């Protein structure tokens, strides 16, 4: 299929709500040295997109948006050695701009998608799945017999992380906001589910663990759940903060960690765990392996045409989504 001269892409000129996102016609870019051009089959929607749109993680403006996509290589720049035209690839660590029909990215930011995994699955799972990988295998090493707390257990990362942790022998306590999400969480790895708006999370965690508390609490919600996460930890437990869906955590006195039982708090990001090509390939390989062996099943909860990007952002920000959300260019 010949390349068109223009494409549809999403741009924004100012930080703000979903209304700042505009679908515009832009030239199809050409790859430079070390770069590849992909024709996107599907684009993943993630909370980092919302943080960048609102300015919590500010971008130089005007800007495109989106870091996760899967598609087919249409052109390669000088010096490219990892890929050829026609290769199926996915990315979650490229510079922003995935919200479009085509995307140029460094070859070092892409991984090859195995033939037995669809491009839609790859787009739905790359950022969230590699996030789950480093969270359960490296930021905190989940092992047989561990009890863990997982907020937003029916979300994109939550459904993958719960299944992965369960496959490692952990007991997963998930929190959700509705009965429908509770059912989804139970079907995707959560041994116990807490409805956070009806029950006190820390109290229920202590009941479930016979007073011990959890070895690790995975918290992508932030301000609204920070206190319950800390209160749910056992002695020398670890709180892994990896998102701010309800807003950033306010400053706190580190002495609280001592008083709570010599606790640990970390605020990791995926990009520090896939900083080299070797780390990126290893993380993606581990992810594709658990999908292949059935330990992790990918839940694509909803898809939106690229033209409906504002509606998609409203749904994700309003916690009205389950699993992964795709934009289809």
Automatic annotation (TrEMBL):
| Position of the signal peptide | none
Kindly give the PROSITE patterns that the UniProt entry links to this protein: QOR_ZETA_CRYSTAL (PS01162)
Q: Which Pfam families match?
A: ADH_N, ADH_zinc_N
Using the record's annotation, list all stretches that form the Enoyl reductase (ER) domain: 16-327
Q: Quick check: keyword NADP in the entry? A: yes
The cross-references to SUPFAM superfamilies, in alphabetical order and at most eight, read:
GroES-like, NAD(P)-binding Rossmann-fold domains
Q: Which UniProt keywords apply?
A: NADP, Oxidoreductase
Identification of the protein by name? Quinone oxidoreductase
- What is the species of this protein? Brevundimonas kwangchunensis
């Amino acid at each position: 299929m010949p390349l068109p001269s223009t494409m549809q892409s999403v741009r924004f000129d100012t930080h703000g709500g979903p209304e700042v996102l505009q679908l515009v016609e832009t030239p199809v870019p050409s790859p430079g040295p070390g770069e590849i051009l992909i024709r996107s089959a599907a684009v993943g929607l993630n909370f980092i997109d919302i943080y960048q749109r609102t300015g919590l993680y500010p971008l130089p403006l005007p800007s495109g948006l989106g870091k996760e996509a899967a598609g087919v290589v249409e052109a390669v720049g000088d010096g490219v050695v990892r890929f050829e035209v026609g290769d199926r690839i996915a990315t979650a660590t490229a510079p922003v701009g995935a919200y479009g029909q085509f995307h140029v990215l460094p070859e070092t930011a892409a991984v090859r998608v195995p033939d037995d995994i669809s491009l839609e699955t790859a787009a739905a799972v790359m950022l969230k799945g590699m996030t789950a990988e480093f969270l359960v295998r490296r930021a905190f090493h989940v092992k047989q017999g561990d009890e863990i707390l997982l907020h937003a257990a029916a979300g994109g990362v939550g459904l993958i992380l719960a299944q992965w942790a369960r496959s490692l022998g952990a007991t997963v306590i998930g929190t959700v906001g509705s009965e429908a999400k509770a059912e989804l969480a139970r079907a995707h790895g959560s041994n116990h589910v807490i409805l956070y708006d009806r029950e006190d999370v820390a109290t229920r965690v202590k009941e479930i663990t016979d007073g011990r508390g959890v070895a690790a609490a995975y918290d992508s919600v932030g301000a609204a759940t920070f206190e319950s996460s800390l209160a749910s930890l056992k002695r020398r437990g670890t709180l892994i903060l990896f998102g701010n869906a309800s807003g950033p955590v306010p400053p706190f006195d580190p002495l609280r960690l001592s008083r709570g039982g010599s606790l640990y708090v970390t605020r990791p990001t995926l990009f520090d765990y896939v900083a080299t090509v070797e780390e990126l390939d290893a993380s993606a390989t581990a992810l594709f392996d658990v999908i292949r062996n059935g330990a992790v099943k990918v839940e694509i909860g909803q898809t939106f045409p690229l033209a409906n990007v504002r509606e998609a952002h409203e749904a994700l920000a309003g916690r009205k989504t389950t699993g992964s959300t795709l934009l289809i260019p």
